[in-house]
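User: Show me a protein chain along with its predicted structure.
Assistant: Here is one chain, sequence first, then structure tokens.
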Amino acid sequence: MRVKLKGTNQITKRLANGKSVTYYYAWKGGPRLPGKPGDPEFIEAYNKAIGQKAESRSDTIQSLLNRYQDTPKWGGLAERTKKDYCSHIRKIETAFGDFPISALADRRARAAFLEWRDTMATTSRRQADYVFATFASILAWAYDRGLTDANPCEKPGKLYRSGRAERIWTQADESALFAIAPARIQVAYLMAAWTGQRQGDLLRLPWDAYDGTHIRLIQSKTQRRVVIPVASTLRSVLDGEAKRRTATTILTTSRGNSWTSHGFSASWRKTLAKAKISGLTFHDLRGTAVTRLAIAGCEVPEIATITGHSLKDVGAILDAHYLSRNTQLAESAIMKLERHDKKTKIPN
């Protein structure tokens, strides 16, 4: 009989060949366990990990990591965020689990942590930033609660810059996609382009979130509740799909099943390659939606209401990444100025 050991965590991943593999960990954020539950090596590794966790000194960074994962803040994180944090925490445990809390106030600690980040950056700058940001967040939590006298990871600056300033879907890109994309991919594109929502939220969106005129959802990352009026272009497509729906979710595979994140991403990449579209991602449709709304004359609060961004984030997107390089906006602005000039000009 297989016995589930208390606190163990399992994560199943889909491989490129379509098969799945399951990994087991002693706890969320804990060390990976060999074999499968019930195997002697699995039980031995589990008992060893639990013993080391129990014996971890209360004056080390490991104790802060353990305490953080028992807090309401941790419990309130979205499951995807927890999964990412667990991966980052394992790296922190390996590098600095036995680092004394008392040494965090030493100026040399910051230098050591930044050097560690730079080492990770040789593999991936983006991942190095993510792991370090997790570390900084946990130390900030500990500092606020008086568990440490310093946060040497505070405000480190970023190593990775996305460089996505001009990566917006144009009408030409859309036409190229629709020329070869199957209906299920076209629906996904229209959902993103007309709502500005994240891929994960759209893949999980059930039919009961659409009432024929509006889409209602709670964003998994921010927990913001958004109500989106559905434009006629998207509404006609959704109404047609509703008549032949085969799953609880709006977006489905060719077999009529709900998408997995990996499955959709793989199909999306293949479709873009076939359409010969490069340098664009599904996530770019979120910024594209913001830009198109702005081009249509929408104000920042109106855009934020639809996409679920904060006012600050909408402004940052428009200012730093898109609007400064978008000629349509410049042309729109001049047309508005000309109309205003004609209305206010005094006849000779």
